[in-house]
Amino acid sequence: MPATETFLVPKHRRHVPTARQRLHKALAGWGVVDELADAVILLASELVTNAVLHCRTSYAQVGVTLTLDGPELVLEVSDPDRDRLPRLHDSGPDEEGGRGLALVSALSDDWGCRQDPYTKCVWARFTLAGRRDVAPAAP
């Protein structure tokens, strides 16, 4: 049975650290540590920040789901602006932003986005098999 952490945060920058803290706690409880945990938390921060900044729906909430299912860990971030799917693009050296999805692409084993009935979801998948930064979960 997969382990899952799911929660909502209001669409405001001040709630991004809350998402990071909740995911850090879940990862530690599952024995996911070191570089992998750091990568998941960094990508969660990027994806939640993107949802907060780019969602055009007023008073929205951003959904965050982290699922550990056997050898896979999947991070999903959703918001109700379902018609605006994110696109990976090359940011120029003078641009201050626009590198979040490049980080997602570089640090995850796979990533993508989908349109659900009322939301869009950006996801990143990590393969745990053979990684040294995953400790066995405590009984």
Secondary structure blueprint with pairings:
Layout: E1 3-10, H1 16-30, H2 34-54, E2 61-69, E3 72-79, H3 100-107, E4 110-115, E5 120-127
Antiparallel strand pairs: 1-2, 2-3, 3-5, 4-5
Structure description:
- There is one protein chain.
- With 139 residues, the protein is of the alpha+beta class.
- It has one domain (3-127): Histidine kinase-like ATPase, C-terminal domain (Heat Shock Protein 90).
- The protein contains three helices and five strands; from the N terminus they run E-H-H-E-E-H-E-E.
- A five-stranded antiparallel β-sheet has the order 1-2-3-5-4, with helices on one face.
- A hairpin with a 4-residue loop joins strand 4 and strand 5 (120-127).
- Helix 1 packs antiparallel against helix 2 and helix 2 runs antiparallel to helix 3.
- It is globular and about 40 Å long.
Strand order of the largest sheet: 1-2-3-5-4
* Shape, principal axes of CA atoms: globular
CATH architectural type: 2-Layer Sandwich
Give the overall pLDDT as a whole number: 88
* Number of domain units: 1
Q: Between the first and last Cα atoms, what is the distance in angstroms?
A: 15 Å
Secondary-structure element string: EHHEEHEE
CATH fold field value:
Heat Shock Protein 90
How many whole angstroms does the radius of gyration measure?
15 Å
Give the number of helices.
3
Poorly predicted runs? none
Kindly estimate the percentage of residues that lie in beta strands according to DSSP: 25-35%
Class by alpha and beta content: alpha+beta
User: How much helicity do the residues have?
Assistant: 25-40%
